[in-house]
Amino acid sequence: MKNVLSFAILSVGGILLFSLSAQAAKLDIGFTEINDTIQLGSRDPRIITASIINTAMMFLGIIAVVIVLLGGFKWMTAAGNEEKVEEAKKLMGAGVIGLVIVLASWGIASFILNQLVNATGN
User: Fold this and answer.
1) pLDDT tens, 94-121?
2) Which of 64, 82, 89, 104 is a plausible cystine mate for 98, CB 3.0–4.6 Å?
3) Cβ proximity of 33 and 68 under 8 Å
4) 94: domain range?
5) Prediction pTM value
6) Nearest-angstrom CA–CA distance, 68 and 99
7) 55 and 26 assigned to the same domain
8) Neighbours of 109 (CB within 10 A)
9) DSSP the chain
């Protein structure tokens, strides 16, 4: 019974895999007309880099704030237990330190990108 089930699963999987590869062979993704239809973006790479850095720093800042809030929640629900209060203080301290690091790194990256823009004459 176990071998029959394994054979059935492998057979169905093979048929699906074969049909997907056959469909992929028919798919034209534009390689034949690359000069006419596909164009690269015209945005400045410095602008793209700045957008990526800003987005990453935003997510890291949100995570740091959530860590601080989690520490505050643990403190509020500690019910006077000193061990839980100390753990909450450490968590809040780690969140604040993380937030300071994120803000400092964002400031440094922003300064460097601004200097690159000024140095290249744009």
Assistant:
1) 999 999 999 999 899 889 888 887 887 7
2) 64
3) no
4) 43-122
5) 0.59
6) 9
7) no
8) 16
9) -HHHHHHHHHHHHHHHHHHHHHHHHH---SGGGHHHH-----S-HHHHHHHHHHHHHHHHHHHHHHHHHHHHHHHHTSTT-HHHHHHHHHHHHHHHHHHHHHHHHHHHHHHHHHHHHHHTT-
